[in-house]
Predict the structure.
Amino acid sequence: MKKPLIGTLAALALAGGTALVGAAPAQAQPAPAGAAPLGSVSFAGTVALSNCSGSVVRMPNSTPTDPALVLSNGHCLESGMPGPGQVVTNQASSRTFSLLGSSGGKLATLRATKVVYGAMTDTDVSIYQLNTTYAAIKSKYGISALTIADTHPVRGADIRVVSGYWKKIYSCSVDGFAYRLKEADWTFKDSVRYTSGCNVIGGTSGSPVVDASTGQVVAVNNTINESGESCTLDNPCEVDQSGNVTVRQGIGYAQETYGIPACFGPGNRLDLTRAGCVLPRP
């Protein structure tokens, strides 16, 4: 998962933090002076967690008065990484997030009321509900939520991995998809594989993967193979339909998000029984 993906994962797990690509060192370093957005994709709407990255997101059918949601990784949960088969729903939380503007400057501190959903089975995702609405965030800070696309990402798509923790934007393309991605005890399905440009590091876990042509979120960044090991923590391996294992050292991965909108009804209410919802259930 990489160091705040999973690499940092191991150390953080011992300290009660999160890892996988994901969890970052105890303290983030300031962004370089004059850091600017890459292309048309900026930091607007992204957030920094204490150990990971994330973003304020909306479903395609969310309304301005709905409670706002924050997307990150399951391995970034403050309660620790969920075990295989473990699903967290509607768990009280008062976690805070630093809301960023387009150039990466902090605009505000947002606060959660609960973890709506969290899991590391099939996917690696956490979704928090905030104590404010999209309309209030827009009115106070001029920030609109990023929309989660409800269609499968496309091979060859130009993408950006936007890390609010490091205030860094990675640019690469969707190289393809891993039928199964295995890392230590966890298995993820149909994962996005990056081309080499997105050499993500710890603390980037939970970053939105944005399609540069649409501006929509198509995945959530979560891991990279750091040292070439096979199927170990911080060293995910690909497993195809025949059980063949492939290791790609230095290549990062993300978990698709197109299936999430089907699990949310009016008012941004989670309903895992909705038609088309395939997120793992508790």
Summary: The CA atoms of residues 59 and 261 lie 5 Å apart. Residues 3-19, 26-37 have pLDDT under 50 and may be disordered. The radius of gyration is 17 Å.
